[in-house]
Design a protein that fits this description.
elongated; single chain; 175 residues; 55% helix; mainly alpha
Length: 175
């Protein structure tokens, strides 16, 4: 086979080239904004490290190198998303006959778990009413604002009823 043809074939089978093909085929399935975020995350976190490599030469150590750099920034959830995207690209390459294995799937348990915890609630706007009911002009989902109003109304009403009925098994805060 012609050496220049082999070189062109290898360039076409790089991780970046296959990822771009995968992205073109999948971008109609998601919103334009989400498709842009996916490509940007690959361009920023993956392509500089393994984009130039032929996909068949990429192993678990390469994937781990990409993910470790993301985890060093303490972006654990992003590392998990990037790993999933890389795995999707490898599955696409396998289905296209361009790769034989998916080293990204092996790295799932190598990642640190996404920290779970309580995050502080957003501070109340000064424009909100005394009871914390969402103002109609506040930003937010209509369902959330409606639920907030309903909660404020029913909480006060139910609390007073239970206190007046004397249910001893219920803990109703006074106030």
């Amino acid at each position: 086979m012609d050496p220049s043809r082999i070189k062109k074939q290898q360039a076409a089978d790089t991780f970046k080239a296959i990822a771009q093909l995968w992205h073109r085929k999948r971008k109609d399935l998601v919103s334009e904004n989400h498709a842009d975020r996916i490509m940007r995350s690959l361009e920023n976190g993956v392509f500089p490290i393994i984009g130039h490599l032929p996909i068949v030469k990429i192993g678990p150590a390469h994937i781990l190198q990409v993910l470790n750099l993301i985890e060093e920034r303490r972006a654990f959830d992003q590392a998990h998303r990037i790993r999933q995207r890389m795995s999707d690209i490898f599955v696409f390459a396998i289905a296209s006959g361009l790769a034989e294995t998916d080293p990204a799937v092996l790295m799932r348990n190598a990642l640190r778990p996404i920290p779970k915890g309580n995050y502080p609630a957003p501070q109340q706007d000064r424009g909100s009413t005394r009871t914390g009911v969402a103002d109609a002009n506040m930003a937010g989902w209509p369902q959330t604002k409606l639920a907030s109003r309903l909660m404020a109304i029913t909480d006060t009403t139910i609390s007073k009823r239970y206190r007046n009925l004397g249910y001893s098994g219920l803990r109703v805060p006074h106030g």
